[in-house]
Amino acid sequence: MVRPIPFAVTALALVALAVAPHAQDMPSAPAAKEGSERPAWQAHGLKVQNPNSPFDEVVSGLYFRSKETQDMQADDFNNPGFLAVEQGEELWSKVDGAAGKSCASCHNEASTSMKGVAAAYPKWNEKLGKPVNLEQRINICRSGALKAEPWAFGSSELTAMTTYVRNQSRGMPVAVKVDGPMTPWFERGQSLYYQRNGQLDLACASCHEKNHGKYLRADFLSQGQSNGFPVYRLRDQRLVPLHERMEGCMQDVRATPFKPLSDEFLALETYVAWRGLGLPVETPAVRN
User: Fold this and answer.
1) Residue numbers annotated as active site
2) What remark does the entry make about the cofactor (predicted)?
3) Binding site: what residues are annotated?
4) Residue 104: pLDDT above 70?
5) Which residues of the chain are in CATH 1.10.760.10 domains?
6) Residue 215 — φ and ψ, nearest 5°?
7) Residue % of the chain over a pLDDT of 90
């Protein structure tokens, strides 16, 4: 007589099968072979700028995508993220708020005044006594100089303006500073990057440091660089801010995510930017 397998044992076996392919200390999927639909990302690495970098070379997420996606990003007419750049350009000169000003009232032409600015964010804000990222800096200007209501995170306006300002630095190297008062935030972000989370017990490093260049189910893992954000995600058919993507990653490992623009995500953004020092700003990038 065959005895039935207890339900608890069956459940544990299913959990083990679900988690095992994702654990960083388990045998990983083979790297993509040359000649497959994925490009040879190894040919596009840049020498690291910091001896403490976990990488031998840093590689933009662009080169972990298909040739078709790379071509879409490179063509400003076909890159769907440029609709947000155009929207941001309109908002730049739009008068808003009680002060009767626009961004252009103080900063004139964005192509000149914003060149290189976004490449250095997150950045220390002396008045607040903490770093701010670009979205926060935009809203500080709105509530201060413009006397206007801050835009909500994830709103089309804030995402478009963030994309437009970052686009003025396109091609310039990521140059975030992590010394001085930024050091504790950098260290906090580093700790969060290696912290395992969720039911799947995975950290950012589990995918983007230990297993980049390999498949996770149907996805080809990158180094998780932030130089292209906000990015146009083909899956979502819209631009996605960095903190929303981080939020999604935490949900993917069955963890309770931090809130966008929280201190935790701000520290993590600082550390991730440091990991990509020297990579060119690509905003708006296109990803899967």
Assistant:
1) 249
2) Binds 2 heme groups per subunit.
3) 103, 106-107, 141, 204, 207-208, 245, 249
4) yes
5) 37-78+173-287, 82-167
6) -90, 140
7) 82
Task: Retrieve residue 113's tokens.
Answer: 């005044």
All residues at 6 or more sequence positions from 63 whose CB lies less than 8 Å from its CB, including other chains: 39, 41, 43, 44, 70
Q: Which residues are annotated as a binding site for heme c?
A: 103, 106-107, 141, 204, 207-208, 249
> Quick one: which of 175, 173, 165, 176 has its CA closest to 115?
165
Q: Where are the alpha helices (DSSP H) in the chain?
A: 7-19, 67-74, 82-92, 103-107, 110-113, 134-144, 156-167, 183-193, 204-208, 242-252, 263-275
Sorting pLDDT into bands at 50, 70 and 90, what band is 180? very high
Tens digits of residue pLDDT in 198-225: 999 999 999 999 999 999 888 899 999 9
Residues 6+ apart with CB under 8 A from 151: 138, 139, 142, 157, 158, 161
Give residue 126's pLDDT: 97
